[in-house]
Design brief:
The protein is mainly α. It has helices spanning about 1-10, 10-30, 30-50, 60-80, 85-90, 100-105, 105-115, 125-145, 150-165, 170-175, 180-185, 195-210, 210-230, 230-250. The protein is built from 14 helices and no strands.
Length: about 260
């Protein structure tokens, strides 16, 4: 569907929107060559559109600004997954945290999610970083629920769980507000069981969407939770399920995430 757009229209705004969709698909299927090709084409089209911005309608200018935000955030996510944090932060720096961003719900969710992963927070002291990341992820989760965005709910819960495993539950949760703690631990489980509960919730949400890539990632995360608790056999079983799903997806050659 996305690839057909470039052949049926010369409207650069429509072309850029479709190419961002194709860029996301390439990111999920690890098609790096095509990713860079689409990314370079988008940059060229954005430059052309900005040069002609004076003749665009107000609606088109708003759509262009939204597409630029989306492009920068998707690029930041790509660089983050390649562990190129400097480049990820550079892409994030193009996104201005103003009211326009907050009104652009999808971009705002991705912006707070990327902050929750630590992108753009390089100036924070290490002892403050975990709490600031948690606040951003909690913000992302609350708004994802508000906007009924199930995918971002799953991603933010996955990231919160990973953060707890990385820094330790007590280290992260010490000093957070009671309201935030009650949201994250609504079932009031023991602190050492909270990562497992969050991983199960993220898995449930991604499974409801049929998003294979996210399902596999959440299976791996759940296995990490079990390993942390010394439950090696359970972890191996879950990893076996994730590996079988990955192999099946590779054989089918389909897109692994929606």
């Amino acid at each position: 569907l996305y690839s057909s757009v470039t052949g049926i229209t010369k409207n650069l705004i429509d072309v850029v929107e479709s190419e961002i969709g194709l860029m996301r698909i390439c990111q999920r299927t690890s098609d790096n060559v095509s990713f860079y090709a689409y990314r370079n084409d988008i940059l060229q089209n954005l430059r052309s559109l900005n040069e002609e911005s004076e003749v665009l309608s107000d609606r088109d200018r708003q759509q262009l600004a939204s597409l630029e935000r989306s492009f920068r955030l998707e690029s930041a996510r790509y660089w983050f997954e390649l562990e190129q944090l400097g480049q990820a932060g550079g892409e994030m720096s193009y996104v201005i945290p103003d009211n326009h961003l907050r009104e652009d719900h999808d971009s705002y969710l991705m912006y707070t999610y990327m902050h929750g992963l630590g992108v753009g927070l390089e100036t924070y002291h290490q002892e403050d970083l975990a709490v600031e990341r948690l606040r951003s992820l909690d913000n992302c989760l609350r708004n994802a629920v508000r906007y009924d965005n199930v995918m971002m709910q799953a991603l933010s819960i996955n990231a919160i769980c990973s953060l707890l495993l990385e820094y330790g539950v007590e280290n992260v949760l010490t000093g957070v507000s009671d309201d935030m703690l009650s949201r994250l631990n609504a079932s009031d489980v023991q602190p050492d069981l909270l990562p497992t509960q969050l991983a199960l919730k993220a898995l449930q949400l991604s499974a409801s969407l049929g998003a294979q890539y996210e399902i596999i990632e959440n299976e791996r995360l759940l296995a990490s939770c079990y390993i942390e608790r010394g439950l090696s056999e359970e972890a191996l079983g879950i990893l076996g399920t994730a590996l079988a799903m990955l192999n099946d997806a590779v054989k089918k050659g389909g897109v692994m995430a929606s």
